[in-house]
Predict the 3D structure of the following.
Amino acid sequence: MSSSHPETSHGSSSVASEAEPWPQLMEQARALDDQLARVDLSPSACARIQSRLDRQAARYGEGGLSVGAWAGLAFGGGAAAAVTLLWLIDESPREPVVESVARAHVDGFGLLSRDCAVERNGDAVELGRDCHVRLDDLGVEMRVLAASSVVPQPRGVRVEHGWIVFDVEPVIPGESPIHVSVPSGRVDVLGTQFVVAVRDGGGQVELVEGKIAFTNLAGQTSRIEPGQRVAWSASGAVSGSGVGGSGWTTTIDAAPPVAASPIDQAGLDGPVTAVESDAASQSGTKRRSVRKLDDKRVLAEALEDVQRLRAVRRYRAALRRLEQIRRQVRDPEVREVLEYEAGTLLESSGQRQHACTHWRQHLRKHPDGRYRENVERRLQALGCG
Amino acid sequence: MSPGTRTLQVVDGGQPSAKRVAGKLAAPRYVPCASDRPVGELVDAMYRHFHPMVFHLALRYGQGNRAWAEDATQEVFIRLFKHARRVNEMENVAGWFYRVTTNLCLNRLRRDKFLGSLPMRAFLEQSQPKPPSPEALGLVRDDLRRVFEIVNHMPPKARACFYMYYCDGKRQAEIGEIIGHSVGYVCKLIQRVEAKIRAAEEQVDE
């Protein structure tokens, strides 16, 4: 086979005198690349990418894809019949200052309630009262109790004004926490439910359950326990000092029920209250230490993480968490459990091909395993034999 | 099939999309849309034309992992939104996609290596070096599996240089421009690849 490459020498004496010393292997490499070139995007991938591009186009305020454009993508014999989507052509003019959008997803917010008014205003998103929205990809739900304005950020939101209940799924160990920024600081969320109320620059954060840490503008951080709240005045001052110093003054309120606490109540215009800080807490995030996962109790906790992620359909995050756990486990029985869990996640996420391959591998690795019958049934149900 | 011929890959009824010709990944010329069209339409047009090429590159660098390649493909076109008008008017739009896809894939591979392997490959993990996933092997003919494994065992940049040099016919200077390295470094990477292949050949002979 002759070399088809314009450069026959690249300074190596071992190669300079030979055109292609490994013709068979090189030919195979090209044949391999050719074979990869023949693989098409699956119909589900096409639909997913198209949907994502359409949402991105909407953010640019210039409308979605035309019917003709989508029809053009129905390519290939087997792929063409699988997916068809109809989109309305939106020939709206250049993006106005405020545009009302009524879609299932707006700027990364998934709308969970009907009749939810969502309007974009520059960088901010205006959420109407009684909206129930979800931040895609972060596992954060927001119930809006009064008209609010938020600005989406990479790992959370900034609350400009309003009254919102946040419900945040526990973050995976090793991932950075979710941030909710307010005028006087930032809440680092590790997995919890809390209420943020902001009005004319002043506000308060009440923790309902779980764990949060509040960092003020001076960089001082304190952990907040359920039932406690931190508040600040319109001037932005939060009294008390930070961790390790003279400590913030303690005000442990039994936080009133969320529904009965209108935004006008005391705490916003009155004296600033503060939260007792944990002197041992040094930062807003505390990574869990690595523990022996052959301990069944610890394994159970870790699997709870996975179940929580599965419950909110964060399958990829759940698989990553499983992988973290699996790497630390040596017990073959435990590994079998984790691998079975991974298979079910692959099925749930619609990755049929991956799931089939995974189950076959599972049977080979655990021929007398506890899940043998289940796995065989799953293989039959998936139709992969 | 003789070495110089490749298969035409027609994806839709419109413009024929990327095809391989004489060892080079060459796309038929992209006809730019009118520049006053909405960004969404520009991206849509470029997506229809270039997504086979982008997906192929991602599949190649992603060791045949389809899900990985799909994610990478999506990311390339999401990034395109910021530059759609400028790219639409470029002389060599295919070159932009080639360069962006290659670099995006290399960055993702570096990130994946740091964060941990892809879920499927992780659960099939054996001793080092990691074998390609069964799904990836399913894409490849039996007689090509050995070379598939050899190529996949190379470090990402070396793998990229190998494909660009031997499969796409790019010159070392071009490769250096694409991945942001000097010609000398590219030459070194290619030599390492050749050494691995030579070693593999010698193993087979033995």
The longest strand of chain B covers residues 19-21.
